[in-house]
Design a protein that fits this description.
By secondary structure, the chain is of the alpha/beta class. The chain is 38% helix and 15% strand. It contains 15 helices and 16 strands. An eight-stranded parallel barrel has the order 1-2-3-4-5-7-13-14, surrounded by four helices. A two-stranded parallel ribbon has the order 6-8. β9 and β10 form a beta hairpin. α7 runs parallel beside α9 and α13 packs parallel to α14. The radius of gyration is 21 Å and the shape is globular. The two termini are 21 Å apart. The relative contact order is 0.14. The structure holds 6-O-phosphono-beta-D-glucopyranose (BG6). The site of 6-O-phosphono-beta-D-glucopyranose (BG6) has 15 residues, from loops.
Length: 476
């Protein structure tokens, strides 16, 4: 036996990238709805350009997603056909609290997710729920400045109480914030932060991060109180940072970049602000507003498991002569001559996955849950509509092999693996439909045109076999 008997094989999606139905059943708008596709998307998701209302000349892909709002039964049946043990999905906060600050939730939104969870259970699929996958009701952005405002903690707490009570028994595994470190790389997408000219950007980002960290600890506390069976995870956009050379300056730089991300999980898993972060903030003059009780909460309510996404490694250097950079999952990197890149320039590094898993397990000694991994590629269906995605099978099989090595050769404890975008969905970084990750092809283009028909790709049958053999048979 390579993977544990109860290993959770499955796939992952996020509400804003697949659900659509943005104005159905009283749902409110969120930051993620207001990220158009096209060249300005990056400036908007990074909080440099302000867009808080729909504007006519733009296309907003989250409005439609892949219309899972109406197709979820068909989609979950297809996931079940692959033998999924787990389906990771997120709830849209603004479907449950349309403005975010109401006292009472929107029943239609609650019912919608209850129906989805029941549908999963009907197929023996366990739902793994991300409470916030980048989304924040736009009213909270406009009225309160999103996570820069401490009031967000109590709004988030209310959301958590409602969903933990309502879905008790139906859902027992939760992730508090998707890729919590993304706040530093795409602050508007990650936390609804628009950074104005007068803002001290780092102070705003770290203060907002503090609020999210406290909210996460509070959610952990409440989840355990409401149902002792609840398991709560933090979630890191992970990926080892290599030094460009053996020059100690480069090695130190790589370590610093590692710590920018570890910082969040150090707090969520070890329960304390790490000393290196406190010193860094002191040196930069960042004075966080930390209220009485915050540090106790962080200390006492640490997470049960560490969830992570892994797509690529990066390379770091201090050499000013090196000008070329790539980006993988919004993390800048110097090109690595030993690695191939995807069509979108993300460096493909299966051994880096094993290194990342080891690093995280060494550091936290808690079970890991790989909740995102995959290859974004443009697929071309043949004349019958079939996609022969051998490139995706090759990427996934190499990464699963690396994960297998981490388990069998290194003793890393891994609970499960959910590939990203198990059904094609909208890309978070580019807003394109063309960048596909799925085992299931969705007939839809970048402008939202297409029949929405779902078709199994070659990788569908391959992954079905991987799951059926508990990861023993990875043959392409
Ligand atoms: C992660 C996110 O950053 O990477 C997902 O959690 C995202 O939401 C995924 O979709 C892949 O990135 P992209 O930009 O290719 O969609």
């Amino acid at each position: 036996m390579v993977f544990r008997e109860d290993f959770l094989w499955g796939g992952a999606t996020a509400a804003n990238q697949c659900e659509g139905g943005f104005d159905k059943d009283g749902r409110g708008l969120a930051n993620v709805d207001l990220a158009p596709s096209g060249p300005e998307r990056f400036d908007i998701i990074s909080g440099e350009k302000k867009m808080l209302n729909f504007e006519e000349s733009y296309y907003y892909p989250a409005k439609l997603g892949i219309n899972m709002f109406e197709h979820y039964k068909e989609d979950i049946a297809l996931l079940a056909e692959m033998g999924f043990k787990v389906y990771r999905l997120s709830i849209a906060w603004s479907r449950i609290f349309p403005n975010g600050d109401e006292l009472e939730p929107n029943e239609a939104g609650l019912q919608f997710y209850e129906n989805i969870f029941l549908e999963c259970r009907k197929h023996d699929i366990e739902p793994l729920v991300t409470i916030t996958h980048f989304d924040c009701p736009i009213h909270l952005v406009k009225e309160y400045g999103a996570w820069r405002n401490r009031k967000l903690i109590s709004f988030y707490e209310r959301l958590c109480r409602v969903i933990f009570n309502r879905y008790k028994g139906l859902v027992t595994r939760w992730i508090t914030f998707n890729e919590i470190n993304m706040i530093l790389h795409a602050p508007f997408m990650g936390a609804g932060l628009y950074l104005g000219e007068d803002d001290d950007k780092e102070t705003v980002m770290y203060q907002a991060a503090h609020h999210e960290l406290v909210a996460s600890a509070l959610a952990t506390k409440i989840a355990h109180e409401i149902d002792p069976n609840n398991q709560i995870g933090c979630m890191l956009a992970a990926g080892v940072n290599y030094a460009y050379s053996a020059n100690p300056e480069d090695v130190w730089r790589a370590k610093e970049v590692d710590r920018e991300s570890y910082f969040f999980i150090d707090v969520q898993s070890r329960g304390e602000y790490p000393s290196y972060a406190l010193k860094k903030m002191e040196q930069k003059g960042i004075n966080l507003d930390i209220e009485e009780g915050d540090l106790g909460l962080l200390k006492e309510h640490t997470v049960d498991f560490i969830a992570l996404s892994y797509y690529n490694s990066t390379v770091q250097s201090t050499d000013p002569e090196i000008l070329e950079t790539l980006s993988g999952n919004l993390f800048p990197s110097i090109p690595n001559p030993y690695l191939e890149t995807s069509e979108w320039g993300w460096q493909i590094d299966p051994l880096g996955f094993r290194i990342t898993l080891n690093d995280l397990y060494d550091r936290y000694q808690k079970p890991l849950f790989v909740v995102e991994n995959g290859l974004g590629a443009s697929d071309t269906p043949n004349e019958t509509g079939y996609v022969e995605d051998d490139y995706r099978i090759s990427y996934l099989s190499k990464h699963i092999k690396a994960m297998r090595d981490a388990v069998t050769l290194d003793g890393v404890d891994i609970i499960g693996y959910t590939t990203w975008g198990c059904i094609d969905l909208v890309s978070a970084s580019t807003g394109e439909m063309k960048k596909r990750y799925g085992f299931i092809y969705v007939d839809l283009d970048n402008e939202g045109k297409g029949s929405m028909k779902r078709t199994k790709k070659k990788s569908f049958d391959w992954y079905k076999k991987v799951i059926a053999t508990n990861g023993e048979n990875l043959d392409c």
